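User: Show me sequence and structure for the first protein, then do the same for the second.

Assistant: Starting with the first protein.
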Amino acid sequence: MHTFMKDISDETGNKSMKELGFEQPKWMEQEVCLYTVDSIRHSGCSSGSYMPAVTYVDATRLMYAYGDDIINFLDQHSDYCSGEFDLDPEKHSYGGWCCRVVSAAVECWAHSIPEDHDFEGRAE
């Protein structure tokens, strides 16, 4: 499995992205660590890596509170993610659609973290 965390210590892997100097979108209310970002990048939210994105009640609440911000994020970061996010009641329930959109945004954000970042501060 390819990982951008190849030589990362447990101390660094367990640090929150905020501690590592990365801004986490306000709609990602649950703070994540570097290990979680790696898991999201490899397995997606549906693997359980970020449960608020795949739990209907949480994803629906997030879309209610931050829906415009989430959709705008997806639009602005289309180089990291793709997909059709139109609500089609014949294909998805509203809760299922919310999970799909929030998951895509979280996965898109995780993939926007640069692979070549010096997380350990080893650069001289």
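Switching to the second protein now.
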Amino acid sequence: MPVSWTKRSLGGAAPQAISSLMTITGSLSSSMGSIFDTTAGALDTAKGFIAGKVDPALIGVQTLCDEILTEINDLKNTGFHTMVIHPYTEGSGASYDRVTGLMSLPPSVLLNVLRTSFDDRGDVGRPDFSSSAICGGFIDVVAAPDPATFAPLLAAIGNFFNLLTLQNAAKLIAENGVGASGALGGRSILPDWEFCGVTDLFPAFGDALDVAEESMLAIKDSGTSAAKSIENLVVFLEALKANLLKINQKLQASVDKFTQGIAGTGNYTLWVPPNQGGIDELKTSIVLGENCPPDTLGFCACVAMVAGSASMEVLGEFLDLG
């Protein structure tokens, strides 16, 4: 049974994956506060106090560090088979529009090219899942009836997913197609799929993960010696506070990027949650799913992503696809 297309906005709120990290770092901040509280007035009985009070608190901090590092590793390993198509993509099926002087690409043409790409054996990057494999897919199509409406939609999706090819296409269309050219072809039938990690698509989040990983490792290393003296403990706590501030600033920057989002007007999505036979369901739904973008919108582009269960679950959380 084909899945229906949905007109929806994307972004506008913090993804669950980011909220989860912020919750854990919040717990770490609370643990840091408790260490500060328990060290008050401890200088007179430093040795006994440190052994009896600080050690358990530091163990709790290091446990939280391990939780964060595990989550960071899982997120960094998240990635997708990705295809991007716009009117100036070679092999997109676009045609010259005499009225506007630009390349026109109706949704039915784009979706047929996308559907056919799954069977291109010359494309080594294509999502080659078996019918019994558990996988899912997400397709986002922006479509508009004219170039003036289409260009800002294209820029929005290019900025949201950090896709330079869409950002450049938006500029090209806004400038009436001056300098339009296609990419050089290979042995496959263009366009081709490529692999993109979640940190490629959302670099602000990738920056936050890098800072968090570096900070957690530093906290773990310094925590080992923190309980040996009050001086070491003070150094540790100051470093911990600075690292947590740095992590939260980076996480907030990535949240700010998501809250910009993509408006629902002219934005059509197809979401196939991870399931057995998901690849077949996705391929069928691309061309047969109800409520797909109509060909009255003669200018369109898409971003398609396909992956196994773990990666698609992360994407579903990121984009709140339900």
